[in-house]
Amino acid sequence: MKLTTTTCVSVDGVMQGLGGPDEDRRGGFERGGWQAPLWDNEGGTFLNQVYQRADAFLFGRWTYEIFAGYWGAMADSSTNPIAVSLNTRPKYVASTTLTEPRWADTTVLSGDVAAAIGELKAKQEGELQVHGSGALIRWLLDNQLVDEITLLVCPVIVGQGTRLFPGTGPDAALDLVDSRSTPKGITIQVYRPTGRPQYETAAPTPST
Prior knowledge:
With 208 residues, this protein is an alpha/beta fold. 24% of the residues lie in helices and 24% in strands. It has one domain (2-193): Dihydrofolate Reductase, subunit A (3-Layer(aba) Sandwich).
């Protein structure tokens, strides 16, 4: 099973509170809802297609609770492609504190998470998707468990909040698989990690 991550970020890498002012105020974050003015039909169509191809989902605890409270609580989710996918396919949560998941078809991974995810990747065909879950994504990258990264980069500098990639962390070389942009300027970039980057010393400019 291929493990993929899909994340909406600002130009300065912020992924916190994109859904609304009160979605996530951790750390005193006050600028939630920055994505909505930049969203358009093309971005929505792309994201619908991503969710529809999922065979299972993997979440961190925080994102799981947000998704369960919204997508999992829809009175009628039959006409929404994202809701249909989330409500009908297996869900896994990496958490040491969640004991009674309220969303149907949820399995909690609380022991050796790396081994459990490795077994999912090895034994099943299809695509295991991670949405949101920034801390989990960073951990997955650190453990070389990510096969593909999709970034939806929104044309805005938020200036505060949790960033997808921290100021210090592991490095990774990436191959660009696909790149496109939406009418409102969201750039959709698909990458595959290819190991460690190469570092070179710039050659001195020849004197004339």
